[in-house]
Amino acid sequence: MFIAIPLENKPSWQSPPWMTVLLIAINCLVFWVWQGGEERAAERASKTYAHTALPAIEVPAFVKYLDAQSRNPDSRIQPQMVRMVQGLQKNQDYGQIYLLMQQEGRFRRQLLAGEVIQAGDPLHAEWQAARARFAPLEPKPFTTRWAMSYEAGAGLQPLQALTSIFLHGSTGHLLGNMVFLFLFGFTLEMALGAGLYLCFYLAAGVSASLFAGLFYAGSGSYGLGASGAIAGLMAMYVVLYRMRRIRFFYMLAFYFNYATWPALVVLPVWMGFELAQHFLGQQGVAYMAHFGGLLAGGLLMALYLQLRRKESVVEVAARDKQQAQAQSAALAAAVQRAQKHTDALAFELAAPAWRQAAKLAPADAAILRAWFESARHAPGSEDF
């Protein structure tokens, strides 16, 4: 595990990072209200499930399904999971098996579609009646509905690519992500402004979800969590500061220390770590979502800085042109005023007027000559 946390900035509560705080509040609300409500309903349903006729019919089929899946080398279901469920079956812990069954989307869809306990099965009628009685007690799916599905044939899922970044798998998952969201979010919100910061956060999160979907499609699991969007913020941070030396706290496995590095150096280290974890086959964490977030966030910030630099060049050129036009207009007015006094032979007024024109165009020979011609009529004057 590699973690690097910048220690350079502190939030200003005179202009608080309210968008970052709002994002944290939304994540917490979704987890503790909607996801928590679904979890509590599932717990209640699991206790009822254990006392119905369903476990005797469905659990053996579930164990058989898990065993078949574990024999597939590309499956995320491992033999130890099968042994665990077999142990729960032996101890008649049907409530816990029900909760595990809820998480296996493919099996549950096949079960409810009548593909597991089929019409020709001797227990089909009994199963159908028990299912009809139990179904109203089951919670309506929330997490699996709005998370990214990695089932075969799930498709692109643009809506879930957005909604999944507000879902979390556990309290620890949520709190860990919210800490990093605050650490990187408030700095970027101050730099970009609340509106642009929110757009970049959502764009990085959606990109991370879609990128992960390319690699985990067909694995049978689902993706959720703000970590892809937060990885995007991390990349934006280091691209924003580029070669500026930033003090980081870092931890590599069990070793931790402080170091001062050019900010941009951290980006390839983060990306390399996520790639290594993916190819080492680590289970349970969507490392390619993190990689996709880092990639999207870095590109977004680089593009933004490039556009802002070009915009600045255009603004400077426009300002210079405006100043030149104003100076030209002022010179023309000064020459016109001086020439008017000269034509009227009012040399005592013409000489100071030509002096003002000469200040605007000190290298203009015609103005200097006109100033001299007016001043020579009063040899004792300051102008002469």
The overall average pLDDT, rounded, is 87
Low-confidence stretches: none
| Strand arrangement, major sheet | 1-4-5
Q: What is the CATH C-level name of the largest domain? A: Mainly Alpha
Q: Give the % helix.
A: 55-70%
Number of strands: 5
Biggest pleated-sheet summary: 3 strands, antiparallel
The N- and C-terminal alpha carbons lie at a distance of: 83 Å
Order of helices and strands: EHHHHHHHEHHHEHEEHHHH
Shape: elongated
Strand content: 5-15%
Q: List the domain count as a whole number.
A: 3
CATH architecture of the largest domain: Up-down Bundle
The DSSP helix count reads: 15
CATH superfamily of the largest domain: Rhomboid-like
The helix/strand class is mainly alpha
Account of the 3D structure:
The protein is mainly alpha-helical and 384 residues long. It folds into three domains: 2-7 and 146-308, Rhomboid-like (Rhomboid-like fold), CATH 1.20.1540; 32-143, no CATH class; 321-375. The protein is 67% helix and 7% strand. The protein contains 15 helices and five strands. The chain has helices at residues 18-49, 54-70, 79-90, 94-103, 105-112, 124-134, 143-146, 158-163, 171-192, 194-216, 227-241, 266-279, 287-343, 347-360, 365-375, and strands at residues 2-6, 148-149, 222-223, 245-252, 255-262. Strands 1-4-5 form a three-stranded antiparallel beta sheet. Helix 1 (18-49) crosses helix 4. The longest helix has 57 residues, at 287-343. The N and C termini lie far apart (83 Å). 32% of the residues are buried. The mean pLDDT is 87.
